[in-house]
Design brief:
The complex is a heterodimer of chains A (14) and B (257). Chain A has 14 residues and is an all-beta fold. In chain A, 0% of the residues lie in helices and 21% in strands. Chain A has no helices and 1 strand. In chain B, the strands form 3 sheets. Chain B has a 9-stranded antiparallel beta sheet with strand order 6-2-3-4-18-17-16-10-14. A 5-stranded antiparallel beta sheet of chain B has the order 5-1-7-8-9. A 4-stranded antiparallel beta sheet of chain B has the order 13-12-11-15. At the A-B interface, strand 1 of A face strand 19 of B.
Chain lengths: 14, 257
Amino acid sequence: KSSQRSIGDFFSVK
Amino acid sequence: LEAKFDDSTIFKKIIDSFKDSVTQINFVCSESGIEAQAIDDSRVLLVTVSIPPSCFESYRCDRPTTIGVYLASLAKLLKSANTNSSLTLYVADKPDELLLLFEEPKNQKSMEYKLKLVDITADMLEVDSDMKSDVTVEMSSVEFTKTVRDLTQLSDSFTVSVTKDGIVFSVQGDTAQGKVLLQPREDLADESNNLSISMSKTIDLSFASKYLLDIIKAASISNKIFLKFSDDTPALFEFKMEKGGGVGFYLAPKYDD
């Protein structure tokens, strides 16, 4: 089983 | 804003390259060009767009302006683009619409469209375009497109691994599996066929196939693609334009639980 990561896990809001 | 492309298909290619990935986008215009970023609804794919003044025949932006558009609407207007026509984008100081003027002086023809702008509330993310990566690969976008099309048919998960021997794209489906190994090469006759790898460590990452099928729609922007991978960041798939700028896709990986 694998889980999809989200962009928000890596980049923070400016 | 008053920005003129000598070839209207440049803008059409840029918009078409991500119109199926995201529904709306804010173009941020300043004197250093037009920049944009948007995330797809599932928040897995981030699109970044950069169109510097060097991409235009003439470019003027007197004060920073944000242009929010629905991409499906803009793409409809850009169906009028062809290589014989120029395209000028106009936005007034108090922006509520984008004017697109196509001109074909040779055919004594001009076309004018207006697009209503929309207020889009979207956070801008801190993305370091020079982010360090463990692996950088430069390869033919045609080769990349073919590999993605062939392999994604077999599984909804797509694995990329890079070692000294080359880059391996692989899929493991329920009934079939596939693997494509591409090794570094130098084609003196056609430089776009070159494949180069620079790496500080090996990587092995998995992505959802459906996003790769979105990304390859941008291959008409450039005959080359730059891939950047690290263990702890989204992968970057980047198409650079001849005159500067380009379209990049940051894709969050899948992890094994």
